[in-house]
Every structure is written in structure tokens, then in C-alpha cells.
Amino acid sequence: MTFGFREIQWFTNSATYYINENTSDCVGEGAAAQTAANTWNQYSPFVFSYAGTTSSVDYGSNDKNELLWVNYNTGSIASTICWYWPESGQLDECDLIFNNASYLWSTSSTPPADRFDVQSIALHELGHWLKLLDLYGDNDQAKTMYGLKSRGALQRSLSIGIFKESNIFTIQFLTNNLLTLTTAEIPI
Ligand SMILES: [Zn+2]
Side-chain half-sphere of 116: how many Cα atoms within 13 Å? Predict the structure, then answer.
């Protein structure tokens, strides 16, 4: 969060999302991304709800939360782009783009050493949709929100260390304009 605005968050406790299964690197990438979303749903009071396919081939503000592969080098493995209202901090939309130009993708439970696992990367990026930030500490490497990811690696489960101090993660969201704090424990 570069700017000194009010905290950015959803004003609802759910978001629908759409997927364009448009990488030719693997099959089942949509199902893999949905499984990642459902992994968050298991522990978070915020619900990601799959709404169907999209034909979008790039991110853009269109009132649809979308996951898709882009055919240009974004400079990252994958990126989350969100739009929000600066005055209130209300999130309006998030898109997740996977870099299909620079990297190879896999949905295999044993991803090849030259490929990124769709489900693992989606799990991390959807953490950004919940406004969790990247972690870069030496002790953060096993955590979902660790900011550097490796080819051939699987990180399909949520790490208990999302908030290292407490083994509890907190997702803030607003319901009916009242701030609600909800916590959920992540089992070891
Ligand atoms: Zn990240």
C-alpha cells in the first residue's frame, strides 16, 4: 500500500469471480484456481464464489473479478490488480493475471521443475485479493504469502504462519458499513 489512503478492503463478505482458462501449457487450470479459492473459503469469513468463464485476455476494470493468462511479460510470475474508491477504501474489483509469456504452467501434483503450479500461485495471489501483503523474511519461506515462488514447487495448503505471531489470521471486511473483525484458526 503505497498511498496513505484509508485501509483498502471489501465492503462485502463475498466476491464472485470469472476465469479464462487460456493457457495452453496445461489442462484443468480453471479447476486448480477454483480449488485455491475454496481453500481460502475453508478458513476465511470472506467467500470467493465462482461465477463462470470469461473471454477477457487482459486485466481491466469491467466490474468482473477475473483470473486469466496474459501473453506478455508482466515482470512477475502473476499479479493482482485491484480497483478501489480512494476516499472510502472500498474495493471495487480485483483481477489476477498469470504471466503466460515468460513462464510455463502446470496443474500436475508433481509439477515439472521448469513450471509453476497454478493452484499454488493462485492461492498466494488470492491472498492479495484479501489484502494480505507479501512476506520476505528468512523465516517466511514456507508461508503462503512469501513473495518469492519456485518452479516445480507445491504450496497448495495455507501456511499457519500467515500472521506468524499468533497462528491466527484476521481478515477485515465491512458488512453494512460496520467494521467486522473475524478470525479463523488455521490448523497445523
Ligand atoms: Zn505476492
Answer: 23
